[in-house]
Design brief:
single chain; 180 residues; Rossmann fold; EC 2.7.4.25; ATP binding
């Protein structure tokens, strides 16, 4: 079963979703795909900032559709943990476990500032703009509200638990569901 297992980990920027997804993939010997990393790579290849690329993606749905296609193809192969802001919605019906990792906006902004080496005020402005753009984009393209967590298997606050503890919670859930 584990070679077919698909886990989708979503959540807003700075929530810890990629850190958790990497831990799970390593612990369970699964592949890891980060939609956010692919998005950042596409922005870099075009010589655009993350904000400018988000604005472009809002006008050009082909960017999201390309990323979605990659995520779905990788999920269909199985044996993978896929993380991305909208991954659990996108992989509904494919993923065996859909998880949201979340945290307050202030904590997420602090984490992003530390990760990117930028001042808090700049990161706050960028994050608020990016989240507004992404929410509008996902509503328009998919009809989903990326802040509605009501339809998931697990919603975990990363302010309360370390990445390792979150990975353990997810592994316990997989065992409980007899998926591993």
């Amino acid at each position: 079963m584990q070679d077919k297992l698909v886990i989708a980990v979503g959540g807003p920027p700075g929530s810890g979703k990629t850190t958790v997804a990497k831990l799970i993939s390593k612990r369970l010997n699964l592949r890891h795909i980060s939609i956010g990393a692919l998005f950042r790579k596409m922005a870099e290849e075009r010589g655009l900032s993350l904000i400018d690329f988000s604005i472009l993606a809002q006008r050009d749905p082909s960017i999201d559709l390309e990323l979605d296609s990659i995520a779905i193809k990788e999920a269909q192969k199985g044996g993978v943990v896929i993380d991305g802001h909208a991954a659990p919605w996108l992989l509904k019906g494919i993923a065996h476990l859909r998880v949201i990792v979340t945290a307050s906006k202030e904590v997420r902004i602090k984490r992003l500032a530390e990760r990117d080496g930028k001042p808090i005020d700049i990161v706050r402005e960028e994050t608020e703009l990016r989240e507004r753009i992404e929410r509008e984009r996902y509503l328009r393209i998919y009809g989903i509200d990326i802040y509605d967590f009501s339809n998931f298997d697990l919603v975990i606050n990363s302010e309360k638990f370390s990445p390792e503890a979150i990975a353990e919670i997810i592994v316990t859930a997989l065992k409980t569901l007899k998926l591993i």
